[in-house]
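Retro notes, structure queue

What went well: the backlog is down to a handful. What didn't: a couple of records were mislabeled last round, so from now on we paste the full input next to the output in the thread. Example, using D-lactate dehydrogenase (cytochrome) from uncultured Pyrinomonadaceae bacterium:
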Amino acid sequence: MQVKTQKDELENYLIDASNLAGGFSEKLFIPETNDEIAEILQEANARKIHVTVSGARTGTVGGAIPFGGWVISLEKFNRIKEINEDYAVVESGVILTDLQRAVEARNLFYPPDPTEWSCQIGGTIATNASGARSFKYGATRDYVRRLSIVLPNGDFLNLRRGEAFSNNGFVELATESGKTIRVKLPTYDAPNVRKNAAGYFAAERLDAIDLFVGSEGTLSVITEIELTLLEKPAGFLSGVVFFKDETDLLNFVDEARRISFETRKRNASILLANSSQQDAGVPTIDATVLEYFDENSLKFIKEKFPETPEDVRGAIFFEQETVEENEDGLFEQWNNLLEKHRAEIDDSWFTTSERDLIKMREFRHALPVAVNERVVKNRQRKIGTDMAVPDERFASFLKFYKQKLNESRLDYVIFGHIGDNHLHANILPKTDDEAQKAKHLYGRFIAQAIMLGGTISAEHGIGKLKSKYLYVQYGERYLNEMAELKRAFDPNGILGRGNMFDAKFFT
Ligand SMILES: Cc1cc2nc3c(=O)[nH]c(=O)nc-3n(C[C@H](O)[C@H](O)[C@H](O)COP(=O)(O)OP(=O)(O)OC[C@H]3O[C@@H](n4cnc5c(N)ncnc54)[C@H](O)[C@@H]3O)c2cc1C
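Corresponding output:
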């Protein structure tokens, strides 16, 4: 195991994609075995030293940034141990790109795609990463079959999905050393949104493994994961389609989403009935991805993609799985829907070729990257929202975003996962005054999302940046319940200090 204490050796571990400044740490550990992690945690517990778990630090809420204490980096846990027909076993430090390449080489498919593929699998589990494809395939949680973890006291736990469930509001877990941990679960209801990454997972019959998925480095160090793999889709039809009128764009999204859900429901019932009617060749709209770009985003991207048309109000990037027999039929259906909603079809881009598809995905990725570059240039922190609201509230929430942002005269882009009613408004202040104004506006958006029954974080999590807003979303009582849950695993509150909870909960 490597142990580092020199300033220059530690500096990369004090920052992540949030640009949150001020991180510091006394010591960095780069362990290679579970036993080494256990020893570090036992000593940290005995001396009440805070420990921050570090993945690839692509997180956007400062979760991996230490404010004192020690850092454990999982970078040496980088082995892909097994890839089978329908599952993979990986160590937590495996980089998503490496897993995706290995899976692809076996003609298989791992759906979670949090846009930024340089993250570690452990980081994606700890944040329950989702992204564009979650519209059809769900978030990382849906692919986690087994976890090996080291608890804050150095004990080991192996959890397999489907083996341990909550009972009357409690979960009981047997550790490898033979101890039983009894955990009281928080009693809040999750907001009625398609995606939620705010706080510990809640469900009436909770699978114990789900407590650790999305727990943001506060309950355990994840060391090994078994993940579900799917068959690789034969092909994809993709399009980036432009609109001159925002109402047309929103109506198009509504209808594409409604038809996609109907198709899925029908396919699920056919599958359940084990019916011979199932025919992958029947063309019916069923989007895997529905992504939005506002007018400002398109102007931003135009620098890298000059072919982006001018004088349009917004664009949608969609994808759908295809097989050879239904490609033409599907193209026709999408085309009809786009015509109905008055898309700028002649200026739009469509493809079924793998090469162009990669280009379209690059188009999607180019935006957050370009935004981050601008942030560095401006020397100000980006203020980015991650809220989602219930279906029926989405149009009014988008209107609220735009009205307030336009009034503010701040630079901004709005883009993201419109299929899940989940957009990112990124405000790009250029001066300290603008940064202040942007923070104020962010608070207004948080209040509005909560008032509409939404969540303050649909995918990036709470980390250190949003703990005060988690408090606003759930209130004192439920935050106390979450803190009680954490204490059941981590009585001294050493792990992931500052993530999710503000200082008063763990002093
Ligand atoms: C350009 C860009 C676009 C992005 N788009 C998306 C998106 O669309 N959807 C999305 O969900 N995310 C997105 N992200 C965020 C990011 O990629 C994810 O949060 C990622 O899952 C974090 O993985 P990581 O290895 O970088 O973790 P880190 O940033 O290192 O850590 C994140 C959190 O997980 C904890 N952690 C890390 N590894 C472990 C472990 N082994 N055990 C226990 N805890 C651990 C850390 O303590 C921290 O709290 C984006 C980021 C960037 C830079």
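Agreed that this is the format going forward. Reviewer comment attached to the example: The pocket of flavin-adenine dinucleotide is lined by residues 16-17, 52-60, 63-64, 74, 92, 114-116, 119-120, 122-124, 126-127, 129-131, 216-217, 221-222, 368-369, 459-460, 496, 499 (CB under 6 Å).
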